[in-house]
Design a protein that fits this description.
With 111 residues, the protein is mainly beta. 0% of the residues lie in helices and 51% in strands.
Length: 111
Amino acid sequence: QVQLVESGGGLVQAGGSLRLSCAASGNILRFATMEWYRQAPGRQRELVALITSGGGTNYADSVRDRFAISRDNDRNTVYLQMNRLRPEDTAVYFCFSVGYWGKGTQVTVSS
């Protein structure tokens, strides 16, 4: 069974940075596309960024040029570096891969 555990969320002022981590069990990172989603109160969950097994990346337009996704296959961990954060980035951030979700980590950006 695959387990995904997110960490790194918190409260930050607008313009600040956070780095989220998603630790995966089962050595899946080498073979799987890893995705970060977020869900703000009253809104649908949306894809923020993904990274393929080959290292290709894609981003939502709202975070392009501010967020960067990366992976460390040796540590079975995927990261989301979030820079120049905005209040509208406030959400619970989830890691997703091969049909499994993590429980999420809260990111709150104050204005």
